[in-house]
Amino acid sequence: SGGGQSGGGGGVDPGSGNAGSATTTSSLRLRSGPSTGASIILTMPAGATVTLTGSSQNGFLGVVYQGTSGW
Which residues pair with 28 in a beta bridge? Predict the structure, then answer.
């Protein structure tokens, strides 16, 4: 099959499945990878609704927020 990691930035694909939705209870940072060292894509406000992709890694859950996927 052959897939591969895209270079640069260390981002990990959180997937694009739909495993339900969740609402943030406080502002949360959407990150490019499943670690606090991964770059921040954006900050979601409290009360934001996200779609869960079903992926989890290092205690982070893959989500999609307004069309942007991250962790």
Answer: 44
- The SS3 assignment for 46 reads coil
Looking up tokens 């099959």 gives 1
d(CA 27, CA 33): 18
- Tokens found for residue 32: 């490019």
Q: Can you tell me whether residue 23 is helix, strand or coil?
A: strand
At 41, the amino acid letter reads I
Tens-place pLDDT, residues 19-62: 999 999 999 999 999 999 999 999 999 999 999 999 999 999 99
The C-alpha atoms of residue 37 and residue 41 are separated, in whole angstroms, by 12
Tokens matching residue 14: 């959180």
CA–CA distance, 6 with 50 (Å, rounded to integer): 25
